[in-house]
Amino acid sequence: MKFSNNVYLEAFVSELNARYGFKDVDLTTADWVCKQTKLKSSPYSFKDHEFQEKIMNDESQNVVVKKCAQVGLSEVMVRSVLAFLARNQALTAILTQPSRKNALDFSTTRVDDIIKESKLLNSMLDRHVDSKELKKIGKSYLYIKGTIGAKAAISVPADMLIHDELDFSDLDIVNKYSSRVQHSKYKLFRKFSTPTIPKFGISKEFEISNQQFYMKKCPHCGKYNETSQSFFNDVVVTNPKYKDRPLKTITHNDLAYIKPDEVQYICQGCHKPIEYHEYTKREWVAKYEGRAISGYQITPFDTAFQTPYNLLKGMNDYTRYADFVNFALGLDFVDTDMIFDLNKLEPAELKPEIARGLCLGIDFGKVCWLTMGRINPNGTMSLFKAESWTEDEIKAKVDEYQRKYFINTLVCDALPQTKLSKDICELFEGPGYTCYYSDSQKDLYSIKANEVDITVNRTQLFDRVLGLDKVIIDKKIDQKLLERHLCGMVKQRDKDDEHKFRYVKVDEDHLLHSFGYLHIACTILINLEGHIAPITLDSATMDSPK
């Protein structure tokens, strides 16, 4: 409609059309973003990042993206949510980052820049509601929040939840956000992250998705290549001196003698080298059609800007190999020092009735998980029992064991069963302690003035458990159940500090916690007595493993 006689009214209607999308209803999200936003003063484009377009246009309720670093997915994520809010007014989206500092930095360096460079978004921004944590676009709202250190998810109804860097976030807070979209007709979830460890975070989400991979057609033989494992299987060094060397053994010094064009990606079919721009066709292909969650795996070979040579060089630039696999390749990976090594378990016939220096550890879940054991003079541990009991049974079992065996010290979980924990400590005739975890605890543990509560540094404790040389376990213990629980927690590095770590749950882990409490009980006993007790009352009668 034209208003040639009223330039003011025509400008007003034009602004309405642009602002509320009356003329853009047929555009996809990707087309709208390319039309309405810019990147470094130029119109946004998917050139050399063609894989991004389908992700941006995906209208599935649940979308998860498992990605390598530096492939432009943050741009996709922010532009998608801004398009959603601008084109669908009076809606709310919540975007989370791992920490509040990450959220504030992200707001300044990513969100603000995109809005400022877009004439439309900038005109829709309400200057009265424009902070680093909250922005109003027309009648829609965007919250930008951190998760780590947050006591709770903000109590705001939402239509879309976007969780960036999921693996490095507080997943308890992330999960609490799910209730914020219960009353929305949209109920949109978007999760993006560099992976860290298997069965955790984005890897866990991707496993239950339809698992889409960006297939690329070879210009020589026509085979479609799936490149998630290509660095290990399809990258070759043609330099005669190094062509038979495993990539992992090539060092910085070796790279001085290898030219960039001597590191090539080869087709999985014909084994001929391929450059990114030579592919005749690229498309996303789902491994499991029909699954509700739409999942994408993005590798460095999906973009034109990463070369096999740069990846090989990057492998040597990372301090930890796991970081290279996670960040550069976009794959989950666990170093041997990040999870309990099951090879350290040694089954044997143990006799607890003649052993000294025994202690108990108890963890509370739906049932009570009890371990009984000791630290041996050589620094190994002997585990005599690893079992579960109901809340009604646990008191009687502790009383039975303290009368049947020479048990010196007990440590049990203080939460969530605080009263039960206190009751057990009162029942126990020796030193009994209720344990609270705290990352701010400087030393391994400290005993409070009441001589009942102890505070334990969680990371230090499990570092000690993983650092044990050997754990001798009684043959009557259910070893498969124990192994599952011991591997139920994995060590994960901090996103911003490669020297800072935390332990995260990936499976059932109650026996691991119980074993940790047992280790603390044994350590307290040793510190109180000043030495490690002999293995048995009569060591000659003990069938100890050799």
Explained architecture:
α11 packs antiparallel against α12 and α13 packs parallel to α14. The C terminus is likely disordered. The chain is of the alpha/beta class and 546 residues long. The strands form 5 sheets. Strands 3, 4, 5, 6, 7, 8, 9, 10, 11, 14 and 15 form an 11-stranded mixed β-sheet that branches. Strands 16-24-19-18-17-20-21-23-22 form a 9-stranded mixed β-sheet. Among the domains are: 154 residues, Rossmann fold (3-Layer(aba) Sandwich); 200 residues, Nucleotidyltransferase, domain 5, CATH 3.30.420.280. The chain is built from 17 helices and 26 strands.
Spell out the blueprint of helices and strands:
Layout: H1 7-20, H2 29-36, E1 38-39, E2 42-43, H3 51-57, E3 62-67, H4 73-87, E4 92-99, H5 100-117, H6 119-124, E5 125-130, E6 134-137, E7 140-148, E8 160-164, H7 171-177, E9 188-193, H8 201-207, E10 212-217, E11 224-225, H9 230-233, E12 235-237, H10 252-255, E13 263-265, E14 281-286, E15 294-298, H11 308-317, H12 321-328, E16 345-348, E17 358-364, E18 368-375, E19 381-389, H13 391-404, E20 407-413, H14 418-427, E21 432-437, E22 445-447, E23 453-456, H15 458-466, E24 471-474, H16 479-486, E25 489-493, E26 501-505, H17 510-529
Parallel strand pairs: 3-9, 3-15, 4-7, 4-8, 8-9, 10-15, 16-24, 17-20, 19-24, 20-21, 21-23
Antiparallel strand pairs: 1-2, 5-6, 6-7, 10-11, 10-14, 12-13, 17-18, 18-19, 22-23, 25-26
